[in-house]
C-alpha cells in the first residue's frame, strides 16, 4: 500500500508542475474558459420582419484568438530608466515653481492689505479628499414602474414604411383630400 505522498510524487512531476502555466483551452483555441452563453441562455433577439422575432446570431471569433497579448502593446512603457536624474530634476523644478508662485501670491496679498491665505490641506485632509474622489459614484435609480417597450418584430425598413404611410395619411387629412384606404395599404 502506497502512502499519499508516494502516490503524489509518482503522479505529478514537481519540476513541471511548479513552473508550468498550462491552462485548459476551448475548441476554438482560446486561452481560459469559454464565457459565451449557450443557445438557451441567449436573450438577445432581432426582428425577422412581419412581426416575428428570432434569436440574434453569435459574435464572430477574434482573429488573434489563442495568442497572448504582449504587455508592451497594452500598457504605456516608461521612456526613461527608473530613478533617472532628469526626471527627478524636472519634478523638483515643478515643485519649486509652485512654491515660488504661492510665495508671490502671499507677498502680493500683504502689499494690497488683503488677508494672506494659508493652505490648510494637511496630509489627512488630502487623504480624505483622495478617498472621496475614488469612491464609486452612485448610479441613478430606475423607477420601479418602468416597463421596457415591447419589440414589434418589424425590421427597420418595415417600421419606416408604416410611419411614412401614417404621415402621408395625416398630411392628406389636414389638406382635406383623403384618399381611399386602398391607397394607403402597406402591402406594396
Q: What would your notes on this structure say?
A:
There is one protein chain. It contains six helices and two strands. With 188 residues, the protein is mainly alpha-helical. It has a domain of 29 residues. It has a two-stranded antiparallel sheet with strand order 1-2. A hairpin with a 2-residue loop joins strand 1 and strand 2. The termini are far apart.
Quick rundown:
The protein is mainly alpha-helical and 188 residues long. The chain is built from six helices and two strands; from the N terminus they run ααββαααα.
Strand and helix map with partners:
Layout: H1 4-11, H2 14-19, E1 45-49, E2 52-55, H3 71-74, H4 85-111, H5 123-134, H6 156-175
Antiparallel strand pairs: 1-2
Number of helices: 6
Overall residue-averaged pLDDT value:
80
Percentage of residues assigned to helices:
40-55%
Question: Runs with pLDDT <50, length 5+?
Answer: none
Strand content: under 5%
Amino- and carboxy-terminal Cα gap: 84 Å
Q: Name the shape in a single word.
A: flat
Summarize the helix and strand pattern as letters: HHEEHHHH
Derived structural class: mainly alpha
Radius of gyration: 35 Å
User: Can you list the strand order of the major beta sheet?
Assistant: 1-2
**Multimeric state:** single chain
Q: How many β-strands, per DSSP?
A: 2
> How is the biggest beta sheet arranged?
2 strands, antiparallel
Amino acid at each position: 500500500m502506497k502512502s499519499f505522498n508516494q502516490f503524489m510524487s509518482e503522479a505529478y512531476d514537481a519540476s513541471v508542475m511548479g513552473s508550468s502555466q498550462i491552462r485548459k483551452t476551448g475548441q476554438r483555441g482560446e486561452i481560459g474558459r469559454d464565457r459565451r452563453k449557450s443557445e438557451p441562455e441567449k436573450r438577445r433577439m432581432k426582428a425577422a420582419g412581419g412581426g416575428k422575432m428570432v434569436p440574434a446570431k453569435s459574435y464572430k471569433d477574434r482573429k488573434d484568438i489563442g495568442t497572448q497579448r504582449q504587455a508592451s502593446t497594452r500598457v504605456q512603457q516608461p521612456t526613461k530608466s527608473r530613478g533617472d536624474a532628469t526626471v527627478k530634476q524636472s519634478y523638483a523644478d515643478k515643485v519649486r515653481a509652485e512654491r515660488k508662485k504661492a510665495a508671490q501670491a502671499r507677498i502680493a496679498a500683504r502689499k494690497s492689505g488683503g488677508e494672506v491665505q494659508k493652505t490648510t490641506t494637511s496630509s489627512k485632509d488630502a487623504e480624505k479628499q483622495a478617498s472621496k474622489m475614488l469612491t464609486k459614484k452612485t448610479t441613478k435609480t430606475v423607477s420601479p414602474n418602468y416597463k421596457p417597450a415591447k419589440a414589434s418584430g418589424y425590421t427597420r425598413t418595415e417600421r419606416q414604411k408604416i410611419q411614412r404611410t401614417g404621415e402621408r395619411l395625416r398630411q392628406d387629412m389636414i389638406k382635406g383630400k383623403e384618399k381611399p384606404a386602398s391607397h394607403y395599404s402597406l402591402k406594396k
